[in-house]
């Protein structure tokens, strides 16, 4: 994805603007704050609080690699908790590496190993990369429509595509059915989107939804379980 524009959000962290869709990759109220709350606090950490994983590896699947912020925050959680994670992410339109290097997430997070974010973006697409001893990354340059997902293989899904009003083909019901089939029993899907049709489709497929308030003025988010 070329010609994306850098923008500082209210918490000081960067987002990017897609000029074609006229849409931000992250919330203007705070890119880092939003992603940390939705995908880490309400997603990964909440899942871990309810499950005794011991030395098991958590399998995470993301739709919308984008800036790599969710991957970086998940990597940080893996390091802090010494939790083994296999992280796969679909992204049909990657941002240029020189754009990624302008993002200030590592500085904001005060990470001791800033080169890890560069490694996340620089590693080859379609190849499993061991970022740390406990964190494996697989980036796939593909849409969810075309992805072959293994049944009952995923613990957590981060559904982080552009908004339904901007990218409606990323929010079609059959894609949520693919997600449901890919999740393990008691697996979790989490998304910033709380669109009514999205939630109705999830319920119709068989997901069980939690009531979750959103961050920074966002009324709610979506957290859905395969029960």
From TrEMBL:
Alphabetical list of InterPro entries matching this protein: MnmC-like_methylTransf, SAM-dependent_MTases_sf, tRNA_MNMC2
Domain MnmC-like methyltransferase: 138-226
Gene Ontology molecular functions: oxidoreductase activity, acting on the CH-NH group of donors; tRNA (5-methylaminomethyl-2-thiouridylate)(34)-methyltransferase activity
Sequence intervals crossing the membrane: none
Domain of life: Bacteria
PANTHER family: MNMC-LIKE METHYLTRANSFERASE DOMAIN-CONTAINING PROTEIN (PTHR39963:SF1), SLL0983 PROTEIN (PTHR39963)
Record protein name field: MnmC-like methyltransferase domain-containing protein
């Amino acid at each position: 994805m070329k010609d994306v524009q850098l923008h500082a959000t209210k918490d000081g962290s960067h987002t990017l603007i897609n000029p074609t869709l006229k849409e931000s990759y992250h919330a203007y109220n705070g890119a880092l704050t939003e992603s940390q709350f939705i995908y880490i606090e309400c997603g990964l950490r909440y899942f871990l609080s309810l499950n005794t994983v011991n030395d098991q590896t958590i399998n995470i699947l993301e739709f919308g690699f984008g800036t790599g912020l969710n991957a970086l925050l998940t990597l940080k959680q893996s390091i802090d908790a010494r939790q083994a994670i296999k992280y796969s992410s679909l992204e049909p339109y990657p941002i240029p590496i020189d754009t990624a290097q302008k993002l200030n997430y590592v500085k904001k997070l005060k990470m001791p190993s800033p080169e890890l974010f560069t490694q996340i973006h620089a590693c080859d697409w379609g190849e499993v990369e061991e970022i740390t001893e406990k964190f494996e990354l697989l980036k796939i340059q593909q849409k969810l429509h075309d992805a072959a997902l293994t049944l009952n293989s995923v613990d957590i899904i981060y559904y982080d595509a552009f908004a339904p009003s901007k990218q409606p083909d990323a929010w079609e019901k059959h894609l949520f059915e693919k997600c449901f089939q890919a999740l393990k029993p008691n697996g979790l899907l989490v998304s910033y989107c709380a669109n009514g049709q999205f939630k109705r489709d999830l319920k119709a497929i068989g997901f069980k939804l939690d009531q979750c308030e959103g961050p920074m003025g966002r009324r709610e988010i979506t957290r859905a379980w395969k029960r």
